[in-house]
Backbone:
């Protein structure tokens, strides 16, 4: 299945939504990842593995990974984070690789292709910076670090992943989005090759247009 055919938020950004669901208390983290990896007869597994590998092998600090995970799942800022987020990314890679091997027994994870061109990187950074004050207010303590972390992912990891995590933070914290920004987000999604429901699954909050 091609990425543009996946009509739900995919990869690591989509996984954060799975961890915000009502079933979280009824399943282990590993079971939740396995369920996500199995979505669409395993179509989700490759995108999740790619995102996890990119972030795992990046220079982004473990603390920033933890901040972004909590922000994208809608959890409050935690000054006492455990520091095992890289081990958690490694576990995600393992689970996804096992799911892919059910269809491709010889599969071995390899480093992902280089990210997309710089023009998309700058476009995503511009949208994050324009939304920064609203994001910081909505996230509360640690909000400025979350914004800086999103920018870091866009620059040092992958603008596609950074854009999807940015959208997930907006949705998780009910950050109002004006009509003009909403249209720009959809335009960016089209440039990345996303299905329109990846950009908005009905949970982006609308606001009066002042842009």
Residues:
């Amino acid at each position: 299945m091609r990425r543009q055919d996946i009509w739900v938020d995919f990869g690591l950004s989509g996984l954060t939504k799975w961890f915000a669901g009502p079933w979280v208390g009824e399943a282990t983290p590993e079971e939740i990842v396995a369920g996500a990896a199995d979505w669409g007869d395993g179509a989700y597994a490759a995108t999740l593995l790619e995102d996890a590998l990119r972030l795992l092998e990046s220079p982004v600090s473990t603390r920033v990974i933890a901040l972004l995970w909590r922000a994208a799942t809608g959890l409050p800022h935690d000054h006492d984070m455990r520091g095992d987020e890289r081990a958690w990314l490694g576990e995600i890679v393992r689970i996804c690789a096992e799911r892919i091997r059910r269809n491709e027994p010889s599969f071995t994870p390899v480093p992902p292709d280089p990210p997309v061109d710089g023009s998309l990187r700058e476009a995503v950074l511009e949208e994050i910076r324009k939304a920064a004050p609203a994001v910081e207010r909505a996230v509360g303590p640690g909000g400025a670090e979350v914004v800086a972390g999103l920018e870091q992912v866009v620059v040092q990891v992958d603008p596609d992943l950074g854009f999807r995590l940015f959208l997930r933070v907006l949705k998780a914290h009910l950050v109002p989005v004006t009509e003009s920004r909403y249209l720009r987000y959809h335009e960016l999604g089209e440039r990345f090759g996303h299905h329109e429901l990846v950009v908005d699954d009905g949970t982006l909050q609308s606001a009066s247009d002042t842009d």
